[in-house]
Amino acid sequence: MAKADKQLYEFGAFLLDPAERRLLREGQPVALTPKGLDLLLVLVRHSGRLLGKDELMKELWPNSFVEEGNLAFNVSRLRKALGEDQNGQGHIETVPKRGYRFVAQVRELTGEAAAQLEESLLRARTSQTRAQPLWVLWAVLAVLVVGGAATAVLQHRAHLTWAKESVARVEELVRAQRYFEAFDLAVAARRYLPNDSTIVRLMPLISDDLSISTDPAGARIYLKRFFRDASGKFPPREPVGTTPISNLPIARGEYVMYAEKDGYAPIVRTVSSALMRAPLGFVFEPPAIRIDQKLIEGATVPDRMVFVPGGPYKLVSYGRPTEVTVQLDDYFLDKFEVSNGEYKEFIDAGGYLKKGFWQYPFAKRGGKTLTWEEGMVALKDRIGLPGPRSWVGGKYSEGRADYPVVDLSWYEAAAYCAFRGKELPSVFQWEKASRIGTLTKYQPLRRLQHGW
């Protein structure tokens, strides 16, 4: 490798060479397993940052399923190689239930300085067989120390310059409502400008405070940003901790949240503060997002359905038709809309000919009630056969079997549910599943009779 491309990591008495996959301690090689060296490289390259267990396992064993105990075993062996005992925190810090953090001070050396340091250490190893004056080694090391200090100062100045320039970019991203990017950039800049007044002012606009509890506790929580990247793909989900989680700062935006606990059905739901934020550019700090989620034993959840806990519920959406509070039982809701292919099974099974599926009387405007035979007359496709209005001859358009079925009446939807042994959710059940009681804090402005 050319000297200009040389890269080393120095921490304490250790020198880590990624290219040669070699760890030296005071010039002497340290025995590490290949996986142990991989683990050390990941930790050192992200020194100071908490790395979640799932993140580490994906990095060390990509495309493979391994038990969490494998990670703990490799961390333990690496600690011993670095001279720590089982609970030593000299280099690797354990964050209970979360992951690990490399806490030793790491200095990255590149180019000529890295090459010279490695060369001097290697020469020191053979000093007993080669007559090498010690003052040469110390002189080289002194030059490197001074050069390293100067490099650190220059790097710090460069970081400050970058951070100051980034603050202006954060403001641009906020104006463009690109909150994920604004948050990530602000957090990075804040490392070098912790008290910058602009970042302090903007953080309430670009971040949310998230607290999550589950019953029972101990669920693993993951968040996935509901935002496509430049390639059109959604990012992978990221582990954020184990419940209870309190006051976790996250970027403002829409998320998919996953809650998983062994023996319980996984929970998938949305997280957003959109309903709690002011429109039209008004600046208000939104209330913290708080999620209280009941878990249910996994074996009791029907396939392709999700569990929604019951309890007293009052509609909270703008324009709600009633102010009453109802008592909801626990219930399950379909994860997916009914497809054309699924609805055709209802037609092919004679669903439009079996009166038993049609449990509700047909009502016409003016209060008149139609007989079942009268009501069924209107439920025809384009050529007069039973089915959705846009179908032809009891069939949907080619290639659209997995598309949601449309052009149905409420009565047909209710009959299909009866065919499947289910029932349509009420407006209370719909809203609780979608909003879970989240208030719309700022209502639309309405024109009054005599002006604003």
Keywords:
452 residues; alpha+beta; Arc Repressor Mutant, subunit A; Immunoglobulin-like; 3 domains; five-stranded antiparallel β-sheet; disordered C terminus
Describe the SSE topology.
Elements: E1 7-11, E2 14-17, E3 22-25, E4 28-29, H1 34-45, E5 51-52, H2 53-60, H3 68-81, E6 92-95, E7 99-102, E8 107-110, H4 111-125, H5 134-175, H6 179-190, H7 197-206, E9 207-215, E10 220-225, E11 238-242, E12 245-251, E13 255-260, E14 267-271, E15 289-294, E16 305-308, E17 311-314, E18 325-328, E19 331-334, H8 340-348, E20 362-363, E21 369-370, H9 372-376, H10 410-419, H11 427-435
Parallel strand pairs: 9-15
Antiparallel strand pairs: 1-2, 1-8, 2-3, 3-4, 5-7, 6-7, 9-12, 10-11, 10-13, 13-14, 16-19, 17-18, 20-21
